[in-house]
Amino acid sequence: MTEFEPAARAPIEPGYRFSRTHAFDEEQVRRFALAAGDDNPLHHDAEFARGTRFGGLIASGTHTTSLLMGLTASHFAKKGNVLGINFSVDLLRPVRASETVLIEWNVLSIAARPRGGSIIEMQGWVKGADDRTSVLAHGTVLLNEHN
After folding, report:
1. What is the per-residue DSSP string for 8-32?
2. What integer pLDDT is reported at residue 11 of this predicted model?
3. pLDDT value at position 94?
4. pLDDT along the chain (147 residues), means of 10
5. What is d(CA 119, CA 144) in angstroms, rounded to the nearest whole number?
6. How many angstroms separate the CA atoms of 6 and 91, rounded?
7. Which of 35, 93, 123, 137 is deepest in the core (most CB within 10 A)?
């Protein structure tokens, strides 16, 4: 799980991007789904999943969206105090349990708050090696940057 750091001290403004890759595997997909309370056999029963149109285990939506949201928290926590305000996601296609994906966010807007800090709106996605988007997201965070 490598995060690709934008240029050192780059200002956060529209077009600012940050990303990392993530390699899924069957055991990780199985454990995450069960820990999240997702009993869908597509996420933990390899034999069952092989007999479906997916041909094998797929990551749960809670797994892929957690990775997206987690990246915002981890990235912005290096810059200051961050608080997630709102996230919405569209699950467009499955993420296979053996897939390596790119998780990326792009800042759409940033607005200063009168009481301090900035509201940052972003669009994010999870893309497979084929560059097709599996998960599309919109997120808003509050950031109080370190001085």
Report:
1. TT----TT-EEEEEEE--HHHHHHH
2. 86
3. 97
4. 57 95 97 96 96 97 97 95 97 97 98 94 97 98 89
5. 9
6. 27
7. 137
